[in-house]
């Protein structure tokens, strides 16, 4: 069993990573149904929260069926972060997660996200003050370091633990790498193998097959996997990994009927949550993966990703079901 403070999780839990414009309530609901043990919100700007910006406050929406759920915030100003914590607490999440890993320029340029990797002392002090501010467990998501020459993740993790961080998720790339190259899990294993570490250490980056999840668990000895891009348009990934853990075999391919049903539910939940326009727009990125592998699919994909009317998108789903009913997916 793995524990984040008093939250009990199964051995080697699978966590849905916070992803901007991806890990919203509809998608989190689908992932939870398919076996995600912990889900995280999109990352939320502390400055946006304290200004009551609509896009930021909307991201605070969480539902009972998601639990345990973490709300992730980012920022570099202590007062703003503490005020944001007070706002987040009102949504009653199970976990508050601090983003010290986002590599995007507009975040980093403000000293937030991965930008804070240049100032480990600030990283430590921010975490310490947030821990003091809330009774909720505080966790951190970060990267190996700013660049290859400044990797101090073993020391960083130890210092964050010492000020009260209850778990750490580490992406196996530096900020300089962005999402290029391969994730390096060896430094994450060094954090886990540090005899002073006693909080869960979760690995993130390139967990894109069940075999890779097994490797992270058995070869690198980590406590769990935080999974991001492999789940886009594929909420079944959690179920596939757990089936492989249990049996050593791949789950039979997800059928076309299941894919269409999930895509329809995803779109409808998105519309119900954020309205027709945004609901249609923000689910588009998932469709290529929902139907990945189908030959001569471009015509249908274009209907799905260019239409602003949900009726047209639902009709495209039905066309796919009718015209490709004999297509066999491979695992």
Q: Averaging pLDDT over every residue, what do you get?
A: 93
Distance between the termini: 30 Å
> What's the total helix number?
15
SS-based class: alpha/beta
* Shape type: globular
Q: Tell me, what is the CATH class of the largest domain?
A: Alpha Beta
- Tell me the number of strands: 11
Describe the structure.
Pfam families: Dus. With 331 residues, the chain is of the alpha/beta class. The protein has two domains: 2-247, Aldolase class I (TIM Barrel); 256-323, Orthogonal Bundle (Non-ribosomal Peptide Synthetase Peptidyl Carrier Protein, Chain A), CATH 1.10.1200. It is built from 15 helices and eleven strands. The strands form two sheets. The chain has an eight-stranded parallel barrel with strand order 3-4-6-7-8-9-10-11, surrounded by six helices. Strands 1-2 form a two-stranded antiparallel ribbon. It is globular and about 60 Å long.
Short description:
This protein has helices at 25-33, 46-50, 54-58, 78-89, 105-108, 120-133, 153-162, 186-193, 210-218, 237-247, 256-274, 276-282, 284-290, 298-306, 310-323; strands spanning 2-4, 7-9, 14-16, 38-40, 44-45, 69-74, 95-100, 138-143, 168-171, 201-204, 224-227.
